[in-house]
# Entry
Amino acid sequence: MQQEFKLQVKPEIAQDQEQLKLFVAKNKRLNAKDIHHVEILKRSVDARQKNIKINLRIRVFIKEDFKESPIEIPHYKDVSTSKEVIVIGAGPAGLFAALKLIEKGFKPIVIERGKNVRE
# Structure
């Protein structure tokens, strides 16, 4: 069985998988031996006060094995001899546009008018 929870923990607990399992078991009244895996879905830092806390959204696998899904690495074709397309701006939108052009088989030329990187 899988269950999702929202927790607020100390940074040292959020970093250690075993401590996190024990914390979940204690606070959610579960048997620690029944927890097979704790998957962190979302992590954010609450540093508004002196005592820093980590906000977590987790998925707990109770009496169920955790199976990692394989990571798929995209394979892009060689576009070095393809038709060139100019993309203006190397911000998030420009870089995403360049990636999409590569996926479509074009060779993007990204132009940025900002300062030289070496400066």
Summary: Residues 49 and 100 are 43 Å apart (CA to CA). The first strand starts at residue 2 and ends at 9. The mean pLDDT is 89.
